[in-house]
Each structure stands twice: as C-alpha cells, then as structure tokens.
Amino acid sequence: MLKNIYLALSVLFTLIIGSLASSGATDPWYLALNKAPLNPPGYVFGIVWPILYVLMYVVATRDYQYIKKLFYLQLFFNLIWSWLFFYFHLPLVALVDILILILINLNILNNLQTRISFALYLPYIIWLFFATYLNTYIVIFN
Predict the structure, then answer these.
(1) Residues 38-68: pLDDT tens digits?
(2) Which residues lie closer than 8 Å to 18 by C-beta, 6 or more apart?
(3) Prediction pTM value
(4) Taking the domains of the chain in order of start, what are their residue ranges?
C-alpha cells in the first residue's frame, strides 16, 4: 500500500513540475520556432500527458519489483526534458535527454511481466517516439 502511495506521489510530482516548465509553450521563444508539420495543437499535450501518466502508474504498480529503478530514472529524465526544452531553451540537449528516455523505457518495456502491462505501456513509448520527431525537427530547422 505504501509503495502505491509513493509511486502515485512520484508520478504526480513529475507531472506537476514538468507541466510548470511546459507552460513555456506560450513563450515567444517557442511560438517563434519552426515546428514539425505533424505538430499537434497545444491542448493535445494537456490531454495526452495525464493519460500517459495514469497508464505509467498502473504499469508501475503491477510490475514494480521488475522495473522500480528504471521507472524512477525515466521519471527523472521525463521531468528534466520539459525544463531543458521549454525553460532553458536547449532543444539539442533535450533531444539527447529524450533519446536516453527512450532507451530506458524500451528496457522497461522489455522487463514487463504481462501482456496487459506491455499494452498499457506501449502508448507511452509511441508518444516518446513522436515527441522525438517533434524535438528533432525543431533542432534541425531552427
């Protein structure tokens, strides 16, 4: 029970602190960037990320003993991406961060114990690849 509370607080903390940096999406710096053709409207991120965090939490509670260290590590890299990109305006460094994040999460995906956990975690992996495309486009075309 305590493990689930700690996980929930960790996920919630990451979501809240990361979203504080992501509010930079209305910053003149971000608005002036050349964005990818498939860049969704800003409100999509506000819908997708909370859903992904809930799915991450569910998977972490199901497979905690197999992924706990990697899970907290990926939360850290997920959190700092927002700050690197939106607050510090370092898209290249943020790209390196998200590539590390993908490697960690592919490792997590490989360590999941059930098909259900795999299916619940897969949308997050797909979204990370999409976010990498968006980040890469900004690095190349700005």
Answers:
(1) 999 988 988 999 999 999 989 998 887 888 8
(2) 49, 78, 79, 81, 82, 83
(3) 0.88
(4) 2-24+38-141
